Structure formats: C-alpha cells, structure tokens
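INFO  loader      accepted 1 record
INFO  loader      residues=183
INFO  predictor   begin
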Amino acid sequence: MQQLVINNQFGFFVSRKRNSNQSSRKNDFESVIPPQPKVQEYRDSGYYLDSISALVTNQSLTPEQIAKGKTKTVTEEINVLPVKYEISDFDEVKAFLSKNRFLISLLEEIPGKIHQYFGSSQKLALQVIHEPDFPENSELWILVLTELPAKEARSIMNRFDKDWWLKNLHQASCKLNVGIKYV
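INFO  predictor   done
INFO  writer      dumping tokens
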C-alpha cells in the first residue's frame, strides 16, 4: 500500500510504499499537512508585513521594526505612480489611494497588461471621478490616452477586457475602472 508523506526539509509530498510491519495508522489532516503560521499586520504603525519569513530571519528585531524595514509606506508607493501614469490632480489621487491602499498593487500591474494590447509607448492617465449624485462613491479611472480610430481602440479594449480585466476586476472592489480617452 502506498502512503503520502510530507518531506519537511523541502516541503513537498513524496509517495512511499508501506511495508507489512508498519501499522495501518489512520492519518488525520494535521499530520499530513502541518498548520501554516499566521501573517501579522501592523496597522497601527501604517506598515504591513508582507511575509512571515522576515520574523524567522530577523528574530532580534521587534515585529514593527521588521515591518518598517520590509515594506514601503503608502506615500512611497504612490510617489512612483507618476512614472507610469499622467496624473492631473496628484493630491486627490493620493488621498483616494490612502483610503483604498489595496489598489496600489493593481495599479503597478495594469500598465504592463495594457501595453501588451496597445503597445509599449501607450500613455496612461490616472484620475479620480466623482459621481455627482453620490460623492462618496468616487472611482479611480485608468484612461488609455489613444490616437487610434475609435473602432480600432474599442476592439483592442474589448480584447483587454475579455482576456485580462474581467478576470481581475474583483481585485478592484468597484473602486477602479479602465477606459479609453481619445486625444
């Protein structure tokens, strides 16, 4: 009979034959897959710890010191966005992203995806749009600034939507949208 065992040294599963002298002990879930350590967040300090491995390698530091050393502040992350986007009202975008920090990683990923469809020289703009009737329902928009004919640009955007954006839209939590602006 074959048995599934975890190789603790390398963290992968190995299959081995059980010899007749071994008992047919029933494996419960925890003996097969050990519990995973919990990742801690340090919200009070404004920093987030992105992996528990830092705690293991830097045991002499306090968890907050490790978090500060391994992550960027919201301001540091937002300050790199003008390299990828044209931002007309930086303070408004910064305020929006401070409240919706989860969007920053998506904002870093999207330009590369859009460039796959529109070309690497494509310019992008970042803008906060306010709903006139419901000001608390503001959205951040990534606008593809294009000179392409409308039909061609719309076709490319439809492919981008179908192939990538609709599969990743849930990450935006109705706070980020992508559109076209004809220039």
